[in-house]
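Hey, can you fold this one?
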Amino acid sequence: MRRRLRAETGAVALVLASGLALRLYYLFLPVATDDDTAAYSQLAHNWFHHGVYGFVHNGRIVPSLIRLPGYPLFLGIVFAVFGQNHLRPAFLLQALADLGGCWLLYDCLRVEVPRRAAWAGLLLAVFCPFTAAYTAAGMTESLSIACVSLAIWSLARFVRAARAGRPRVAPLLLLAAAAGCATLLRPDGALLLAVFAAAVFWYARTALGALRSLRLAILTAILAALPLVPWTLRNAQTFRVFQPLAPAEANNPGEFSPQGFRRWMRTWTIDYENTDDVAWNQEGVIDPDSIPPRACSTPQQCRETRALIAEHNRLGNVTPALDAQFAALAAQRIREHPLDYYLFMPALRIADMWLRPRTELFNIDDDWWHWSDNPEDSALSVLLGLVNLVYVALAVWGFARRRVPLAAALLAYMLLRSLVIATMPNPEQRYTMECFPMLILAAACVFAGDRKAAGGGASATVAEVPSDMAA
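Sure. Predicted structure:
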């Protein structure tokens, strides 16, 4: 038995080492930076060197609250140790955190389902090209994904102990830490806090009683929210506003936010190409030919749309007066086609963010369907799209088999996250990356075998208690 355990530990270590090699390959490619990376780096520098959490504007540092402090804090510590703007040490730490998350998913599966499913989960997690690629990007996704993995592992540990009549505090503290860190990294991290705190009550209510479970859930939520207190107090003192999270429109108090323009975009935008061509050129020049035909319903509306785009290009931005015209156009389109605005467009945005080839970090032409322009990029894009589709299809299959541990919590998180990001006018595939630990966990359960072979059921569904949880 001891020899078998040593052999398994060695095999796991070998897989993780191979995963580290994959991530090092991404790390030593040219550093991937974008506007988010530059913003986080500037916040870290100004915070650590000048004591002001903000951006340089007209030669002075102006306080800001448009980005949560979690990732700038991480970068600031790394820069303090390794030198300003040295991103590769940060990427290496992200790679280690990501591999730690892979092991947590494996360990969760190892206990909850047959071991072959655990091995499948380990391989799916370690060699996922998308999560691996984000470890070499100066954005919040990689650390956020690690937080989600830790939250899943901690919740599973707590539920197992609670149903065995021996609830422990440590898993709840780790769950609160994971949700708190996720929320400090990204505003949508609050979804993890809300869903998993509710899951504490849901899964423990029978074993521990509804009142005790509710107290534990509330305590978990409070502990997870504590890291936001200094940030909220700072915002109240600096800006005289109650802002525990970063604002959805990424604007400081008093700054103009083009709500009408964004609402107009929501009437027709459905894919990443629209984000690239229009949303990211809001401050600049928008090519009128990049606006698809679905953005207008009549010839008159098309003429009005082109006139507004021409005025935007002349001004180089969306002014309040121009924003009011976009708002009027959006209101007209919503009146004419309410189902498009409230149902079909959001559904198509969700489909795009889940199913579009995840090429954003692979230096591949976004217009991958133009085979004649760059057949190599198009072929690689299709391959990446198929890999993504395999992960999604396996996860759906896993959930359908009702073998996925904590299925209700995982599904609730993915559904709630999808509904939230569907309201955004700038769909990007990265907004679904935090769901990949759930996808991997569910996909691995496809390889768990049938219930009879597994000895009467070894995973927790909404209504079932696994034998090893009850022991």
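Residues 451-471 have pLDDT under 50 and may be disordered. Let me know if you want another pass with a different chain boundary.
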